[in-house]
Design goal:
This protein has 313 residues and is α+β, with helices and mostly antiparallel strands. 37% of the residues lie in helices and 12% in strands. The chain has a six-stranded antiparallel β-sheet with strand order 3-8-4-5-6-7. Strands 1-2 form a two-stranded antiparallel ribbon. The radius of gyration is 19 Å and the shape is globular.
Length: 313
């Protein structure tokens, strides 16, 4: 990726708009099963799959959830379907898991339909925390993980294919907003559209943000673009999905810089400011600061946020 770093330093040109990044092999399935019932849409289903696994059909969570839709094995036993008609219900096969996720969403939407509040948010909360928790609390339960989950998917679902990328003025606003936060503490799970906030527990190394008001990497970029009128989803992987890939030579200030072993395993995001430099919230124990783009060896992509509109995928 050294050429991408050098190109960013040399040529901040503007590229053209593309679309929300939905893998081509899953698009037909998402379009078909995203219309299974009135409670869901293709965009919502795509957003959920992006949040759950980054569209990785072999994903496995630390608690044992599996596949592109991250079903727990017990839930799969009761809700998995043989979507492709091959006589097997395979939790790791998107042709089974995607229709199963759509059906499960429809079922839980019906189960929580009488709960007060936003029906879509209640449905998403039930997917994450269970229908019992949504009924118990009369809406989205007061679990930080579930609240972030609902917020992230709702934001990503509003970022459809064919939206316009951030304008130069919006990018400038986002960069200026990020600059104003330099020196704020890193907080795992911290940061929202209003600014720094307390975070959550815990990072992969066990660090908690619950007692620190600040930003994590994606919280900072989410905040910066919120000031420009663009709602980004919460995690770095989701923000990549909500951005137009930018080619080397087309990188400009305001673009988002992503790091990871693949685009389905992004672990860090920053905002490019020009001449090979970026602003980021690096890790627990640090503060928002300037860093060179090549500070990490696994730079995987640069993307330009896509402003939402009303089209479907």
């Amino acid at each position: 990726m050294a050429s991408l770093v050098q190109a960013a330093a040399d040529d901040p040109a503007v590229s053209t708009a593309l679309s929300l990044s939905v893998p081509a092999e899953y698009k037909d399935l998402i379009e078909e099963y995203g219309n299974m019932c009135p409670a869901i849409s293709p965009n919502l289903l795509a957003a959920l799959l992006s949040q759950e696994s980054g569209f990785n059909p072999r994903a496995t969570s630390p608690v044992g959830a599996k596949g592109i839709a991250q079903f727990m094995p017990s839930t799969w036993e009761s809700s998995g379907v043989d979507g492709n008609g091959d006589g097997k219900r395979d939790i790791n096969n998107p042709e089974d898991a995607i229709p199963s996720a759509a059906r499960y969403l429809c079922n839980i939407a019906d189960d929580v339909k009488d709960v007060p509040g936003d029906k879509q948010k209640n449905m998403l909360a039930a997917y994450n925390a269970g229908t019992g928790a949504v009924k118990k609390y009369g809406g989205v339960p007061p679990y930080k993980e579930t609240q972030n989950y609902v917020t992230s998917i709702s934001a990503l679902a509003k970022t459809p294919v064919g939206g316009k990328t951030a304008s130069s003025d919006q990018a400038t606003t986002a960069v200026d907003a990020a600059k104003a936060m330099i020196g704020k503490p890193y907080s795992w799970g911290g940061g929202n559209s209003s600014g720094p906030s307390t975070g959550t527990c815990c990072s992969p190394k066990g660090r908690s943000g619950k007692s620190t008001v600040g930003f994590d990497c994606s919280g900072l970029t989410l905040y910066a673009y919120a000031q420009a009128g663009i709602a980004l989803p919460r995690t770095a992987t989701q923000q990549y999905a909500a951005s137009e890939p930018v080619k080397p030579g087309d990188v400009r200030p305001g673009d988002l810089v992503f790091y990871g072993s693949s685009t389905a395993a992004i672990h860090h995001v920053a905002i490019y400011v020009g001449n090979g430099w970026m602003i980021d919230a690096p890790r627990p124990g640090t503060r928002v600061r300037y860093d060179p783009m090549d500070i990490m060896s696994d730079l995987i992509a640069v993307g330009r946020p896509v402003a939402s509109n009303s089209k479907e995928i």
